[in-house]
Design the sequence.
């Protein structure tokens, strides 16, 4: 496999936008010898969780998303906080967003949300035998409806576009790889 | 399904960062009645392409990515330009990044890269019977090595983390759904 060969000549902090920072890199191309600018979004890692009940229902979250301007059917997830490991974040986000708890999370793997300009990873977990524990504890900026969907319906919901979030689709893909 | 209920009260352009613009929305929560800020990244749509030869090899691209600071094994892809439709962009990106051309692209579907803060879609295409046509035509900021990988090896490369880009994983997932 080819080596990188890029030489980074400067790195500048451009600004903080709550859930990420923007940095600008300048780097010299090994191919042309010219210098090029790259904007990066620096963010903490994310987690998402596939929570499943004994009855093979996935505990999903349905909420308005400002990026796509529509209600999105997703699995619970969020940002890993400074002092957390990803598994703790998964347990916390599941409990806060849905009110459910379950068995110890099983690590499914991680993906890079976008290696071109996002610096973080998204860690994916499976939580089995989920049970309702008590009321959601939502962040001020969240308004989330919980919806239980039979696991057998997920592929059709991806195919017909009801589930559109790339990272949610990746999590179900990793669940398939895990169960094979 | 629950209705949104959010009321957007302002929208401000924060800045242009070459491949995206940042906007700030302020919106009133239907749950709490309080106003919250949301940062959005406005970008044109993206495309990615699974190019396959008669011998069932996928034409992949291997390049250094500044987000993850490592060489990434991906499929060709890029931004849809202003005057293009996604299929034209797919044909163009395939030719520019790899030097290959093939049959008319088959639309596999689209995903939302991140509905929380990205406004765009990623359209995914399959291009069969790919053949080498001539030299790559790379953008000044690109340095790409072409690598042919047998389609049967893809799942293992996703599982072991060699292929890490979430949108590349989504494209192979949609190829599976398409072929079933």
Sequence:
């Amino acid at each position: 496999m080819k080596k990188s060969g890029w030489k980074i000549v400067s790195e500048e902090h451009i600004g903080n936008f709550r859930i990420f920072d923007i940095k600008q890199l300048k780097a010299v191309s090994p191919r042309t010898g010219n210098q090029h600018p790259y904007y990066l979004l620096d963010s903490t890692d994310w987690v998402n969780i596939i929570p499943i009940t004994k009855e093979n229902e996935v505990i999903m979250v349905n909420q308005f998303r400002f990026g796509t301007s529509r209600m999105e059917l997703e699995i619970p997830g969020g940002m890993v906080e400074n002092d957390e490991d990803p598994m703790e974040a998964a347990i916390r986000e599941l409990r806060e967003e849905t009110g459910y708890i379950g068995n110890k999370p099983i690590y499914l793997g991680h993906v890079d949300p976008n290696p071109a300009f996002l610096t973080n990873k998204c860690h994916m977990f499976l939580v089995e035998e989920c049970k309702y524990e008590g009321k959601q504890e939502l962040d001020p900026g969240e308004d989330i409806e919980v919806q239980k969907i039979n696991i057998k319906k997920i592929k059709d919901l991806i195919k017909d576009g009801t589930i559109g979030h790339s990272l949610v689709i990746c999590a179900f893909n990793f669940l398939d790889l895990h169960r094979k």
The radius of gyration of chain A is 19 Å. Chain A has a mean pLDDT of 95. Chain A touches chain B through 68 residues (CB under 8 Å). The first helix of chain A runs from residue 86 to 98.
